[in-house]
Predict the structure.
Amino acid sequence: MRRFAHGDTAAFEELYRRYERPVYSFCLRLLGDPDRAQDAFQEAFIHVVDGRENYRYQGRFRSWLFTIAHHACADQARDVRRFSSDPGEPQGAASQSAGAAAEGRVVARDELDRVLALLPREQREVVLLSRYYGFSYGEIADLTGSTEAAVKQKAYRALKTLRAALSAQEEEG
């Protein structure tokens, strides 16, 4: 990021290649809509370009980028609520990740995405950031502008809901 802030466009291309898939995947799983996820993803990288001169080097770039993506997704979610007839409804399950190797893994990922879509956005975000992207609860608190205790509570509630949904599904199948 330092190189990019000093005018090295190749450095931006490297950052983009490195973070394109995880940031888009995060947006898609959080929003559940490919078009909105693409909009949030693009908004996040536009912000990186626009904010390159103000980037503080003491933090990790990855945390900064996911904070930006978090805000872009929140903006998209607000737009959905503003124009949706039923703002409490989840916006659909995220599509399967491109390039999954084994069919069983794709089925499991689809099912997990479907169950994750049942969670409120804030709980889904905590699960995604902690389990998929390896952020600590403290990092998630910083990233989302929350407290670590609140993040832990959201994670607890989300995992409780996920366990119940998966248990109910096993009983049906």
Notes: Confidence is low (pLDDT under 50) at residues 82-107. The CA atoms of residues 1 and 14 lie 10 Å apart.
